[in-house]
Amino acid sequence: MAEYSYIREIQIRFKKKRVKGQSVKEPIVNAEQVVVLFSDMQNETKEKLITISLDKSMKILCFEVVAIGAVDSVYARPVEMIRGAIPFAPYGLIIVHNHPSGDPTPSKDDIRFTGELMNETNSLGIDFCDHIIIGDGKFVSFANMGLIKEFQRLLKKSDDKLNSALQKKAEAVASKLANNK
User: Fold this and answer.
1) Closest by alpha carbon to 25, among 67, 66, 59?
2) Pick from 161, 171, 108, 132: which is nearest to 32 by CA?
3) Taking Cα atoms as reference points, which of 79, 88, 84 lies closest to residue 59?
4) Which fold has domain 31-151?
5) By CB neighbour count within 10 A (0-12 exposed, 13-18 middle, 19+ buried), where does 133 fall?
6) Helix 147-179 vs helix 108-123: angle between axes, to the nearest 10 degrees?
7) What are the tens digits of pLDDT across the range 101-115?
8) 3-state SS, one letter per residue, for the chain
9) What is the pTM of this model?
């Protein structure tokens, strides 16, 4: 008798989020637009982490609540931030999370995580547009602070070094293979 195994099928389900005062069909041109759309996060009692996927014209394709944490932290691996966006082939991503304390000042972990996530999205050809932290009636935007451009500059330097090392290694292996013929 034949034995059967099962594999999982991915199914994408959409839920609507009602927003007021702004058309979601408009391009996202600043952090304030995102804060208006997700202003309800300032009332959350736990940190919530959201990924917003954008098309090439910077219009929202979708968003995903990736993780809900504790009162002072939330954890997600960079791959979890990107995974839900991949089926939509996004041009860009914005991540948003809240600080229930009301103080949107980024922690060292927030800053490090943003750099790691930028590295991952860049390797996939997805623009990392912003990381916005929502507090009580105020917010912090990494793009507004200049951190996104600074991280892009650092990642470019790192990519250049990596590409140079890969080129040298490719030439060495090709030369060795050619000499073995």
Assistant:
1) 59
2) 132
3) 88
4) Cytidine Deaminase; domain 2 (3.40.140)
5) buried
6) 50
7) 999 999 999 999 999
8) CCCCCCCCCCCCCCCCCCCCCCCCCCCCCCHHHHHHHCHHHHHCCCCEEEEEEECCCCCEEEEEEEEECCCCCCCCCHHHHHHCCHHHCCCEEEEEEECCCCCCCCCHHHHHHHHHHHHHHHHCCCEEEEEEEECCCCEEEHHHHCHHHHHHHHHHHHHHHHHHHHHHHHHHHHHHHHHCC
9) 0.82
Tokens of 162: 């990596």
| Domain range annotation of the chain | 31-151
> Do the beta carbons of residue 33 and residue 58 sit within 8 Å?
no
What value does the mean pLDDT of the chain take?
88
